[in-house]
């Protein structure tokens, strides 16, 4: 009885400690002004930097080195190789100025008689994924050069991502690296003007004990879109991600370092603490947002929520708060 009591007290203490870490460390870092590069608005393909999945968004967009759910189609396609079940996830975020952001992704492991061994004793030829990302803003008034009203306008940006990930096993049979690739189709529609472009992303993921290391290279082949006369080319973006688990894998910490063409290095920090494999609390910090969130998991279902305070810092207009909601469903035993 005393042992069980001590165990419960210990778990409660860890939960309180984790909550304190998640609450005060990001706020302290946020107040220090770490010199992050914050100006994303206006660059080609900026909507594809908004993130995917309420869980990862609550962790400050740190997921390249985590990559363990269906949102990995967006973050790092190599993570697909680690998934054992078919899975779908969806996110919706109500943002500023009548703007909505949505993401949906589905993954399907391919099992056959040949290929690397899977956790359930089957064989795998890798995992396929399909994702859709959309940012839309409607209802703003158009005016001509003489300030006469021209009706309502709207902007919509959409990406369709087809992904594949698999594991490569080294000759010694002990060390594995997962690799993956995305083929994406992106469309931009501004009022009556529209164009479509195509691109390719690559990813890699490996681990050493409880340390995961991920690499994501986006726009290796860059989409190009032309509206009226100007052509926009999506910039090359490289992210190196790390994640590590503590306390019987209940505490996850993550760090992503992102370098995008013609922009300074960005740092993303994130944490997640899971209690009894049912309830998770999360927090994170990136160059523009301080984030918090929680998640509930029951059997094959996960419901996640993320709250973000967007502060453009250093003289740029603050965009306030946003709420992100996500649902994940896994199939099979």
Q: What series of H and E elements makes up the topology? A: HHHEEEEEEEEEEEEEEEE
Label the CATH architecture: Beta Barrel
Large-scale geometry: globular
CATH class: Mainly Beta
Number of domains: 1
Q: Order of strands side by side in the largest beta sheet?
A: 1-2-3-4-5-6-7-10-11-12-13-14-15-16
Total strands: the figure is 16
User: Which assembly state applies to the chains in this document?
Assistant: single chain
Rounded radius of gyration (Å): 21 Å
Low-confidence stretches: 12-38, 312-316
Quick summary:
The protein is mostly beta strands and 333 residues long.
Question: In words, what does this structure look like?
Answer:
- By secondary structure, this protein is mainly beta.
- The chain has one domain (2-330): Porin (Beta Barrel).
- 12% of the residues lie in helices and 56% in strands.
- The protein contains 3 helices and 16 strands.
- The protein has helices at 2-32, 54-58, 72-75, and strands spanning 87-94, 99-117, 123-143, 149-169, 176-190, 193-208, 211-221, 224-227, 230-233, 237-246, 251-260, 266-275, 279-285, 289-298, 301-310, 320-330.
- A 14-stranded antiparallel β-barrel has the order 1-2-3-4-5-6-7-10-11-12-13-14-15-16. Strands 8-9 form a two-stranded antiparallel ribbon.
- β11 and β12 form a beta hairpin.
- The longest helix has 31 residues, at 2-32.
- The radius of gyration is 21 Å and the shape is globular.
């Amino acid at each position: 009885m005393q042992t069980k009591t001590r165990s419960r007290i210990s778990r409660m203490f860890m939960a309180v400690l984790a909550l304190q870490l998640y609450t005060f460390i990001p706020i302290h870092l946020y107040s220090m002004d770490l010199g992050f590069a914050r100006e994303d608005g206006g660059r080609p393909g900026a909507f594809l930097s908004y993130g995917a999945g309420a869980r990862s968004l609550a962790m400050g967009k740190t997921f390249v080195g985590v990559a363990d759910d269906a949102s990995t189609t967006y973050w790092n396609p190599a993570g697909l190789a680690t998934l054992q079940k078919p899975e779908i996830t969806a996110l919706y975020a109500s943002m500023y100025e009548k703007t909505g952001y949505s993401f949906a992704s589905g993954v399907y492991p391919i099992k056959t008689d040949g290929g690397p061994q899977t956790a359930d004793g089957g064989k795998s030829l890798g995992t396929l994924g399909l994702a859709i990302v959309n940012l839309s803003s409607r209802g703003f008034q158009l005016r001509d050069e003489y300030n006469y009203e021209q009706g309502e306008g709207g902007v919509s940006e959409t990406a369709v991502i087809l992904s594949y990930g698999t594991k490569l096993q080294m000759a010694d049979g002990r060390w594995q690296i997962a690799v993956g690739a995305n083929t994406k189709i992106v469309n931009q529609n501004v009022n009556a003007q529209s164009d479509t472009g195509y691109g390719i992303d690559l990813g890699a993921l490996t681990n050493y004990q409880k340390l995961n290391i991920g690499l994501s290279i986006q726009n290796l082949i860059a989409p190009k879109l032309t509206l009226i006369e100007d052509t926009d080319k999506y910039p090359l973006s490289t992210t190196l991600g790390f994640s590590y688990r503590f306390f019987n894998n209940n505490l996850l910490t993550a760090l992503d370092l992102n370098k995008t063409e013609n922009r300074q290095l960005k740092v993303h920090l994130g944490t997640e603490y899971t209690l009894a494999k049912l309830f998770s609390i999360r927090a994170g910090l990136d160059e523009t947002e301080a984030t918090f969130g929680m998640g509930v998991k029951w059997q094959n279902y996960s419901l996640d929520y993320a709250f973000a305070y967007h502060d453009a810092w250093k003289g740029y207009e603050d965009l306030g708060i946003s709420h992100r909601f996500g649902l994940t469903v896994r199939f099979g035993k």
